[in-house]
Every structure is written in C-alpha cells, then in structure tokens.
Amino acid sequence: MPSNKTIVSREQRQIVLHSSVIQEPEHAPLRSVLEKYETITDKILECDDSIDQRTKDIIRNAFMEIYNIARQEWESVRENTEGNTNCSLCNQPNKLIFFIRNKFNGNTLNVGSSCITHFSNLRDANTGESIAKIRSRILRSQDLINRKTDFRLEYKDLEKVLSRYRKILDRSEFLLPEPYYGALSRYIESISNFERDYLSGKIPKSDLSKLKVILELCENYVENYVLHWLKEQDSENKLLCDIQLTTWLENQKETAIIETIRNNNSRIDILIINKIYETSFVEKQLPFLRKQLESLFLTIELYNGRIYVTLDEKKLKDLVFFCSPKVFMEQFGKQVFIPNPANIDVGYCLRNILTLDEPEITGLIEVLNTQYRGNYKFLFDDDTKQVYIIRGNQYVISNFNSITKRLLPYTIRKEFLEISKQMFFERFTGWQPLESFDEDKLYKLGLYE
To answer: For 18-75, where are the alpha helices, taking DSSP H only?
Structure first.
C-alpha cells in the first residue's frame, strides 16, 4: 500500500505555480498536476494513472530544484501588521503579512510570518534589510505587545498594589524599621523585576502565573508583620520617628541617620538626638528638656522657629535670650536621656549658645547700669543699635551682641567688677574723650538724667 507522505506541500505548490519557471513549455505536465492538487503525496502519484511516469519522476526527484529556482524570483514590496490577512501559501490568517512580487511575471503573493521563511534570501526592496531580520524584529515586537496585553489582563491592578506597598514602605505614619523595611523592599523589587523580565521576554509565557505566588507572599507579610507593627506603635512616644521627621531627614539628606533609626526599631537614641532639630520633634522634647535643664533655664519655649529661654540667674532672669533649634539640640539634645550637662553653666550659655533678643536691649542696659553703678554707664542708641560705654570722662562704642557674649558672663560672678575690667573693658583700645561726643546726643541718650 502506498504511503501518504507529502512530497509537495501546499506552500511549495503556491510558490511554484505563481513563478515564471513553471511557465516554461517543458514544465507543462507538472503545472497541470500542481493545478489539480493542493498537495501531492506518494498515494496520489501511485494511484493517479493520468500522470505520466516522466512527470512522476520529476515530482519525486527534481521538484525541489524547480522550487528553489522559483524561490529566487521574488522581491519584497512591503510588510503589514494591521488586521488579519490570509496567507497566499497556507491560507491561514496572519497579523503579519509580507507582500512580495515576482520580478519576472509581476505576480504578487501575501505571505504570512511563518511561510516567509521559504524565502530565506529575500531582502526589502527599499532598505536592503533581509526579510528574515525584518520578520524576527516584527515578531518580537508583536510578542512584546502580546505579552503586555496578557500581563495587563492578568494583573490589571498591579500598579495600585505596588503603589500601596510603596506607600507603606516609605510613607507610613512611622518610619518602617528593619527587618520589615528590607523585606518589603525586596518583595517590591521582586514584583517589579518579574514584570520587567516578563514584558522583555526573559520569562516564558507559561510562567506568568508565578507572579501570583509572589504577590500572595507579599500581601501576607504586609498584613501579618508590617501593618501589625505599625498598629502597635504609640503615637505619643516622643522618640518614635514619624513621617514628618522622616521627610525632614530626607530633605536634609541624612541617609545615615535614617539607617541608624531603622536599625533601632525606628527610635531616636542618645547617639543621634543632638543631630535632629526638626521643629515638631524639638517641640515634643521640650517638656523633658525643661525638667532636665531646670538648673540652667527658668523657661524654654519654641516660637516662630526659635528657642527662647530665660536664665535661672537672679541678675538676668528678666532678660529673654534665643538660639536656633539646631544649636539648642546640638548642645542639649542628649539631656532628653540624662540630667544637666556637665561643664555647661549660665556663662557658657551666654558665650557660646544664646543671643539676646533685640526687644530686650533696654532691660540689658538696666541690668548693666545697676550692676556697674559708679564705675561704668551704658547708653543705647536705638537709631544706630550701638551701645556707648562711659567711663569717667571717656567713652567707647560696642554692640549689644558683643556685650551679651563677652560681658554678661562675668556679671553673674561675685568678683564681676575685677574680672570684667580685665576681660572686657581694658581690652578696648578705642576709648575717646567724652568732650568729643555730641552733647545734645548725650542728653538724648540719657547720660545726664
């Protein structure tokens, strides 16, 4: 019994029938057989007595040579990737169709992406690019489009899910500590990498469902560990790093401090507290700092971005001083954890930390005139913001900041007169005779009251 083995496929038949080589007179019998049958098998050749033996021999032994000649007769016209067009060779619908033309007889064929491989040497008539390369490029592009469509259908809410996880990771009420931060970061990275690798073709289409496993593991971790930790935190904890402080640290580019806090269960400790001066955080610390620093300050207040204090010093208690939250926390931040700092007294504060608030200048002048009565007289010129120091029949000009930093620290000591004379008054080299001073101005400043 003859086999049903295919000798001439439908695709090969179509190529040869539309070529010019088959039109040669010697191939007329072969052309007739090709026109009669879409495919030719061993069984057809054995059973069809109308086909002469010579033609049967040509089909069995020489057809591939004729087919190869026919394949060389074609050139590419253009390709089309829109819609579904049936292939002229296999009659199957294809999204990618190459339109080719016979160089000798002008016949055209619509060839699908699979059947175009019959024309391995074909090149684009305009660019010279091989059809094989064009086919590979277009099919890859279509595959990527299909992958994207499949992915979006399967995981249509993935962006929302990732957005939620990223918000929990970086914008929760409190800074997420290790190990929760690291674990959730790795889950998000795995999900993002899977999406990237699948869409780029690195992951087989058959593995698309594996992302569901990663998403389930991540969701379980978030619910059972991350959110559980967040719910357990006490918002009243003054040392817990909240979102406001986190944002401030990020803006300050304090990545090392953020990492330290994460590794300390999102708590600020004594090693870093003096580096944190975010306003709301400082305000939380003030009740504790007032208690810890009560031997130095009568009052400590935060107002309009400044720390205002009054000193626990009888002579100066009515004067208000200020400094920045940064300077204050650098000096006193650690006192949240321990009592009064060693080696810091009122004099140190005046010299290195505090500035007299300008509205307090009048009070400062009163304090100085009371303290140094009979030895020195202090006058303040509100127009020039200068302080005139009168000694006998001489005067010198200073400014209230210099006096605050360089003179006030000595006024609080018992031997203030001798010390301040050596450390402040005698250091001025610009003493001028009082008679050279404008007398009207002296009256205006109150020298002769």
So the answer is: 28-36, 42-47, 53-61, 63-71
pLDDT score for 445: 72
In a domain, 444, yes or no: yes
Rg over alpha carbons for the chain, rounded to the nearest Å, is: 47
pLDDT at residue 449 in the model = 56
Q: Are 245 and 276 a contacting pair, CB within 8 Å?
A: yes
pLDDT at position 39: 92
In a domain, 29, yes or no: yes
Which residue among 318, 334, 358 closes a domain?
A: 358
- Structure confidence at residue 340 (pLDDT): 66
Statement to judge: residues 375 and 410 lie in one domain:
yes
- Note the Cα 49 to chain centre separation in Å: 79
In terms of domains, do 102 and 172 share one? no
User: First-to-last CA distance in the chain?
Assistant: 141
Domain count, the chain: 4
pLDDT score at 80: 66
Distance CA 363, CA 137 (A): 85
For 307, the token pair is 């720390």
Looking at the structure, do residues 94 and 130 belong to the same domain, yes or no? yes
The whole-angstrom separation of Cα 329 and Cα 325 is: 6
- Taking the CA of residue 350 as centre, how many other CA atoms within 13 Å lie in the half-sphere pointing to its CB? 25
CB-based contact 91:14 (threshold 8 Å): no
398 phi, psi to nearest 5 deg: -135, -170
Separation CA 240–CA 190 (nearest Å): 30
Residue with tokens 């579904």: 84
What are φ and ψ of residue 438, in 5° steps? -60, 115
Give me the residue label for tokens 């390369």. 133
Q: Which amino acid is at 202?
A: K
In a domain, 266, yes or no: no
Task: Determine the pLDDT at residue 41.
Answer: 92
Cis peptide bond prior to 179, omega within 30° of 0: yes
Average pLDDT of adjacent 10-residue blocks, the chain of 449 residues? 82 91 89 92 90 90 87 77 79 83 88 82 69 69 80 92 96 94 96 94 92 96 96 90 94 94 94 93 92 90 93 87 94 85 80 87 87 88 86 88 84 80 84 82 69
123 and 13 in a single domain? The answer is yes
CA distances from residue 83 to 94, 96, 141, 148, 168 in whole angstroms, order as listed: 8, 8, 15, 18, 44
Query: What is the C-alpha separation between 160 and 374, in angstroms, rounded?
Result: 79
In-domain check, residue 229: yes
- Domain range for 211 is 155-246
* CA–CA dist 37, 323 (Å, integer): 100
Residue whose structure tokens are 């303040």: 380
